[in-house]
Design a protein that fits this description.
Elements lengths: L7 H20 L5 H25 L4 H22 L8 H23 L8 H32 L1 H9 L4 H26 L7 H8 L4 H33 L10
Helix pairs in contact: 1-2, 3-4, 3-5, 4-5, 4-9, 5-7, 5-9, 6-7, 7-9, 8-9
Length: 256
């Protein structure tokens, strides 16, 4: 099966279509033309830089590949920290620890065991797979933490009543933790319900367009979605549980 190149002329045509859409927003006075222009520029610039970076990374050896993986996890944790509206406690380090444990373990398992890449640290497999695992599940952690802190603030009196009756911090917050993890997982579960019926995943589509056997592309996509579900559930549970513990003092008092 043939695969077709995307020329710079094709990209220029795409930019012309974006410009036409931007002109339509100007005509309707939506105030989005500047945002569209900036987002388009950022997209092109960031991906152009990424192309150069990946060419260099694909020549890395094991220690440097793992360093890139850790940087990706740390940057994701920092991004989540900025997205969480509530700043009740200093939760960055527990968040980073939970993400390192979850994402590094699952990425290495996926690359070395599920895919069977040789060598196991092959950057051509490890870096893209890590990007999909981290990128798709970090949103769940951000939603879960935001829901947890908002719930503690809204139900503060209820939590403090439970503490006064002798409950420990984790016991007083367990219902809020469950609600937070559930809120984080729901988008991933909803997406999985529509895959193959409403939407075609990017990884599978990209492989098919590149000429891969559709059955192989589908097996890859099933694998990555199942790993994403595991990483989303594990990451959200670990991060929320650790953050919840930080919300209480050693004397079982709510920390604000």
């Amino acid at each position: 099966m043939d695969s077709y190149d995307i020329s710079y002329t094709s990209l220029a045509l795409c930019l012309a279509l974006v410009a036409a859409a931007g002109a339509a927003t100007v005509a309707l006075r939506l105030g989005l033309a500047r945002d569209m222009a900036w987002s388009t520029f950022r997209l092109c610039a960031q991906l152009a830089v990424l192309a150069l970076v990946l060419k260099a990374v694909f020549n890395f050896r094991a220690p440097w590949v793992l360093a890139v993986l850790l940087f990706m996890v740390a940057f994701a944790a920092w991004t989540i920290r900025g997205r969480v509206k509530e700043r009740a406690v200093a939760f960055f380090w527990p968040l980073l620890a939970s993400m390192v444990v979850t994402y590094v373990a699952l990425t290495l398992l996926t690359t070395a065991v599920l895919v069977g890449a040789h060598p196991w640290w092959s950057p051509r497999y490890l870096i893209p797979l890590a990007g999909m695992i981290i990128g798709n599940s970090m949103n769940a952690i951000a939603v879960a933490l935001d829901r947890l802190f908002a719930g503690l603030r809204q139900r503060r009196r209820e939590v403090e009543t439970l503490l006064a009756l002798g409950a420990t911090g984790p016991e007083a917050a367990q219902e809020l933790v469950r609600d937070a993890v559930r809120a984080g997982l729901l988008p991933t579960l909803s997406t999985m319900l529509t895959v193959g019926v409403v939407s075609l995943p990017g990884m599978m589509t990209g492989q098919i367009l590149a000429g891969a056997d559709p059955a192989l592309a589908i097996r890859y996509q099933i694998m990555i979605y199942l790993v994403i579900l595991v990483s989303t559930a594990t990451g959200a549970m670990l991060a929320t549980l650790l953050a919840a513990r930080r919300c209480f003092t050693a004397a079982a008092q709510l920390r604000w």
